Amino acid sequence: GVNSGAYCFEVTIVKTGLSHGNGIARVGWSAAHASLDLGTDSAGYGYGGTAKAANNRRFDDYGETFGDGDTIGCYINFDSRRISFSKNGTDMGMAFALGKSSATFFPAVS
Question: What is the pLDDT of residues 39-94, one digit of tens each?
């Protein structure tokens, strides 16, 4: 996990299952004790394929929709205390401010 500095990872969406009605992708960062359903508690921060930023069961409009074939970049910067995302190399801007959290975060996909 990470708790200082700046880090990123990318995920390429191969198949979401949307054509079969059984799922969407959500990617981001979570603490070890976070729910596996990313963004549904205060310890997980996600960006979903429906163009929503998700944290603590709050789903705010953010970025663009994404799906099969898209590459999503997930960025965390502890110096600026922010989490942001990109879609196919285009910066979507800040999604979350971390506040004074001292948690260790891990890449997360759900």
Answer: 999 999 999 999 999 999 999 999 999 988 999 999 999 999 999 999 999 999 99
| Cβ neighbours of residue 87 closer than 8 Å, sequence gap 6 or more | 63, 64, 66, 70, 71, 72, 73
DSSP 8-state code for residue 2: B
pTM of the model: 0.92
Gap between the Cα atoms of 84 and 47, Å rounded: 9
Spatial CA neighbour of 9 closest among 109, 93, 78, 104: 109
pLDDT at residue 16 is higher than 80:
no
Q: How far is CA 34 from CA 39, 44, 75, 79, 84, in A?
A: 9, 6, 18, 22, 19
Task: Indicate the Cα dihedral angle 108, 80, 7, 23, nearest 10°.
Answer: 20
Please name the amino acid found at residue 69.
G
Answer whether 70's CB lies under 8 Å from 13's CB. yes
